[in-house]
Amino acid sequence: MNYDIDLRTLEGDPCSLEDYRGEALLIVNVASKCGLTPQYSELQALHDKYSARGFSVLGFPCNQFGAQEPGSAEEIREFCSARYGVTFPMFEKLNVNGPERHPLYAQLTAVPDASGKAGDIEWNFEKFLVGRDGAVRRFRPQTKPNDPALVQAIESALT
After folding, report:
1. Is 80 a catalytic residue?
2. What is the DSSP secondary structure assignment for residue 118, as one 8-state letter?
3. pLDDT tens digit string along 32-66?
4. How far apart are CA 67 and CA 114, in angstroms?
């Protein structure tokens, strides 16, 4: 994993993936108006359960799938906070596919899932678990955050 990637927080402040080196991360492209949006609750539960052990969920709003993240940064923050109690780090809206794909997702989409398939993000709430060692595992959108395979992978990434 290359951590030398510039990011911006949801509030527009510059930061870098480098700020998270050494932690286990669950990187997720999120959306507020998706059938999978209730996964925010489970993502927050994971963040709460494991953050003291060096784990963070990182949310990246994306409007590329059915225009399901149309809001401004302020609207996204308000929705996530009021509706789901989100406290994990959220970043500015970005593209995960196509010619304007963010460098973070250019790197992540090269990682295959458990079936060996790499490439474009399929939908909102695709998950990438980055271990403390930088190794990346990919979980498709339908894999819920509390799925035993994902939880076991997080536990392993923290040891």
Report:
1. no
2. -
3. 999 999 999 999 999 999 999 999 999 999 999 99
4. 28
Superfamily for domain range 6-157? Glutaredoxin (3.40.30.10)
| From 15, 34, 62, 80, the catalytic residue | 34
Position 130 pLDDT exceeds 90: yes
Domain ranges of the chain: 6-157
Dist. CA 146–CA 152, nearest whole Å:
10
Phi-psi region of 152 (alpha: psi -120 to 50; beta: other; left: phi over 0): alpha
> What is the rounded average pLDDT of the residues 132-149?
96
Which amino acid appears at position 42 of this protein? E
Task: Give the Cβ contact number of residue 40 at 10 Å.
Answer: 25
pTM across the whole model: 0.97
